[in-house]
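Title: Comparing notes on inverse folding

I've been comparing how different people in this forum approach sequence design from structure. To keep things fair, I'm posting one structure and asking everyone to reply with a full sequence. Here's the target:
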């Protein structure tokens, strides 16, 4: 993820941070559902190893999208907030991101123990969908308070 973050910032500079974030959220919704489905198929299969490469590819899409989204989000904060507010917002956002990097493996691990890892991925996909709607509502819709395409 760390290696692709600068790409997200660069694309955000060219296209617009909220647009990049919107596309990233959409990709993560689809990839999250797809990973959950592949995990469900693998858990029900007598040969789960046949699903490994598609699982790996989809997870790589999730990691790449989260890195690009991280870069576009951090780049957008500097555009939306003035200099005095941007520092604290960046710090708070970094703390939330660090918590997410901690909690995601915990949730996936708990669901693996329960035998239903696909539920974790479906839950993450719902979260990404909520993020997509919030991003659109606050930054992309016509008449939003802070229009930041």
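Reply #1:
Here's my take.
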């Amino acid at each position: 993820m760390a290696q692709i973050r600068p790409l997200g910032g660069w694309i955000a500079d060219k296209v617009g941070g909220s647009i990049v974030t919107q596309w990233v959220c959409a990709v993560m919704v689809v990839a999250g559902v797809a990973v959950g489905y592949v995990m469900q198929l693998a858990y029900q299969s007598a040969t789960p190893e046949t699903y490994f490469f598609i699982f790996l590819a989809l997870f790589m899409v999730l990691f790449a999208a989260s890195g690009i989204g991280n870069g576009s989000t951090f780049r957008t904060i500097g555009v939306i907030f003035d200099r005095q507010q941007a520092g604290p917002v960046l710090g708070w956002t970094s703390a939330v991101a660090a918590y997410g990097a901690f909690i995601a493996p915990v949730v996936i691990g708990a669901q693996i123990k329960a035998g239903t890892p696909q539920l974790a991925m479906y839950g993450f996909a719902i979260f990404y969908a909520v993020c997509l709607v919030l991003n659109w509502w606050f930054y992309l819709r016509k008449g939003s308070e802070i229009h930041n395409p």
